[in-house]
User: What shape does this take?
Amino acid sequence: MVTKRRVLWGAAAALAVGGVVAVALWPSTVTVDAAPATRGPLQVTIDASGETRIHDRFTVSAPVMGRVGRITLEPGDVVERGVTLIAEMTPEDPPLLESRTTQEAEAAVSVARGLLGRADAEDAAARTALRQASAELERAQTLWTAGALTRQAYEMRGKEHAAAEERVRAAGFGVAPGEPLVELGDPSYLEVKADVLSTDAVGIRPGMSVSIEQWGGATPLRGRVERVDPSGFTKMSPLGVEEQRVSVTIDFKNDREAWTLLGDRFRVEVRIAVWEGRDVLQVPTAALFRSGDQRSVYVVDDDRARRRVIGVGRQTPSASEVTSGLDAGALVVVHPPETVTDGGRIAVEAR
Assistant: This one.
């Protein structure tokens, strides 16, 4: 009787241990988020920062040699033809010239032309140095904010920028014929200039539609690419990396009333549509993962995850075009965790 009872207890213990082992080895269920493959419009854009500028600018220059009084006009003042006084000049009286004086004057003119050319070169060099100093100061500001630059180095960039400004002002003393006095423009005719990476610029063409965003209004403005510059330039990124960039000019397609609050050199964000499709099979880009050289997704098959190799076309940060391997309506796992395996148990999280 005792032996029989021991056998029964042993069998029960073995069953209990077996049950624990079975539960431990039973594949666990992973909770996942999922979204269906859908058909609809897809737009691939190149995004960049830009600024507005007056389309046509006109420079009023000094007509003769002389002294110019203080110009009281301020940026944004309205100028009316025949009404607005831009500047008052006191021209220098030319002396009476005899033959010898004429020859000396001609020689002086020749020298003056040489000096003018040198002054123009110095002015251009000073302005180039100022642009470089401004870029260095902007980069230093970013690094200082991030804690990656010492105060001494940051203050040094500020002093170099101030010195560059002084050199530009020094180069502009004195008024000769042709010296610019003021710049005029019509603020009702604005355009946007955006600088994009040269690798992106090769895909941009005049006429492409543009969405102008973060300009201060409630809805984006519409624009179109007017011009892509044929040459690029080197620009330092905030992280100190040299980049080749190309300027893209964008015209507004909205009526003037839509962007009446914008002015010259206002900051905006642009999205240039380089490709658009109306009926595109697509899945969230976050559903894609690499398996070797192929792109795959996990398809929800009842309570199992099935790895499916698919063809991928154009992509955006939010959606990717599916060219093969998937049908519309298929449910795919978004942001698949590492614990999801092919054939593994899953449970779709309710939304």
User: Anything to note?
Assistant: The helical segments are 2-25, 99-145, 151-171, 198-201.
